Amino acid sequence: MRAAVDVMGGDHAPTAILKGCWEAATQFLDPAGDSIILVGDQEIIRQGLESSGLPADRKALFKIVHTTEVIAMDDSPVEAIRSKPDSSIGVMCKLAAKGEADVVISAGNTGACVAAAQLRMRTLPGVSRPGIAVVVPTFHGPVVICDVGANIAPQPRHLQQYAIMAGAYAEAVCNIPNPRVGLLSIGEEDAKGTAIVKESRKLMRDEPLINFIGNVEGRDLFKGNVDVVVCDGFVGNIILKFTEGMAEGLFQTIVSEIQDSDPELLEQLGPVMKKLHMKHDWREYGGAPLLGVAGYCLICHGRSDNRAIKNAIRVGKQLHQSGINAKIVESVKKSIPSEQ
Fold first, then answer.
1. Contact predicate 17/107, CB 8 Å
2. Is the N end or the C end of the chain the one with fewer CB atoms within 10 Å?
3. Sequential DSSP letters for 124-185
4. Which residue has the higher pLDDT, 65 or 259?
5. pLDDT tens per residue across span 184-241
6. Is 280 exposed, middle or buried (0-12, 13-18, 19+ CB in 10 A)?
7. Which residues pair with 64 in a beta bridge?
């Protein structure tokens, strides 16, 4: 696997990004077949590599591609890609388009990552619009949500394809056989939801490639009766950030309450609490794949630290090995009527 990493993107760039790469090099990468292309300011990267403490064989895993521009978090995505051709995000996606990188990883501007992937890497054959998929850990197992921010105003056809692509991802990467797919709405009844939700429901219901169980509500994500949840990027992003905040707040509340009532009990429960926290920590999942682009693109949280970047590289390798894009192309091709 050849992973191109945006060294300049994210709230904690470049230090945390580079540290995550050093950690991944010692834990997940095979010198015989893996490499990381560090995209960004070459002087910063060289200094970081020199002071990394990595042995020579691990340092040899890294290549540097120099860029002179950085897309800020508040830049307009498409405009920034066009006006900053030498940005780390843009160059990274060009490397993938030229076949020089298998996976691209960034914690920078999400909209710019999506735009660059679409403009440079292009979409897979038959895919109308790419969607970001995230894995949400629950008591009953992982649930994949798609989309969480790539497309805030989708058409019904887009949502149908998200169901197909996220289903393939759940099966190939999360090891969920024949995943149950639900369409997020405000009620289980067919009549509930917007016009787009109603039309999307019809398309998913009539598509034999989708194990469609109908409309699902927000609470169903944690009840164990659905494996893939499809929604527009606006709603999906709100759900993602809400669940992240709720998990963090819940753990803080539990620890505080136990500390106040019985400090010794907290010490006894420490290992269990740590294990539970790791299961629900977004940093353990690294990044979210942008499904539907020709290549593998992982979009990381803007707050990503070294642990998140390290795990994103692990997930990128897993994606590359899964060959999921070929499965998506095959499924989408079968789902599209010949007249389209």
1. yes
2. C
3. PTT-SS-EEEEEE--TT--EEEE-SSS-SS--HHHHHHHHHHHHHHHHHTS--SS--EEEE-
4. 65
5. 999 999 889 999 999 999 999 999 999 999 999 999 999 999 999 999 999 999 999 9
6. middle
7. 38
> Which is nearest to 151 in space by CA: 126, 130, 124?
130
Amino acid at 50: E
Q: How far apart are CA 206 and CA 212, in angstroms?
A: 9
Which three-class secondary structure state does DSSP give residue 40?
Answer: strand
By mean pLDDT, which of 54-63, 172-181, 188-197, 247-256 is the weakest? 247-256
Question: pLDDT by residue (tens digit) across 148-178?
Answer: 999 999 999 999 999 999 999 999 888 999 9
Cα four-point dihedral sign 296, 320, 140, 230? positive
pTM of the model: 0.92
CA–CA distance, 227 with 133 (Å, rounded to integer): 12
| Length in residues, the chain | 340
What token pair was written down for 202? Answer: 């019809």
Round to whole Å and give the CA distance between 174 and 169: 7
Distance (Å) of CA 258 to CA 25, 214, 276, 277: 39, 41, 15, 15
- Phi and psi torsions of 218, nearest 5°: -55, -40
